[in-house]
Amino acid sequence: MKIKLPLDKMTIAEKLQTMETIWNNLMRRSAEFPTPPWHKDILKKREENIINKEDHFTSWEKAKKKIRNTVQ
To answer: Which residues fall within 8 angstroms of residue 49, CB to CB, at 6 or more apart?
Structure first.
């Protein structure tokens, strides 16, 4: 099925809402999508890094500020 959206005519808010609608639909069907094996490996490595103090958590506010400073 090919879907054609009027992307050139849609506002950013409409595009974001469309993406949100698709994402919500995919999330409701998440059991149909198996997690790839490499994902488990990455999560295990990240957990080990936290335990070994090779990495740390950052608050969401600090993370957003860092992202904003990086992209500006």
So the answer is: 55
For the chain, report the end-to-end CA distance as a whole number of angstroms.
39
Q: Are 49 and 55 in contact (CB under 8 A)?
A: yes
Q: Report which residue type is found at 36.
A: P
Structure tokens at 58: 């950052």
Question: What confidence tier does 14 reach under pLDDT thresholds 50, 70, 90?
Answer: very high
Segment 55-68 shows an average pLDDT of: 93
Amino acid at 69: N
- Local structure of residue 31 (DSSP, 8 states): G
CA 21 to chain centre: 15
Rounded mean pLDDT of the chain?
93
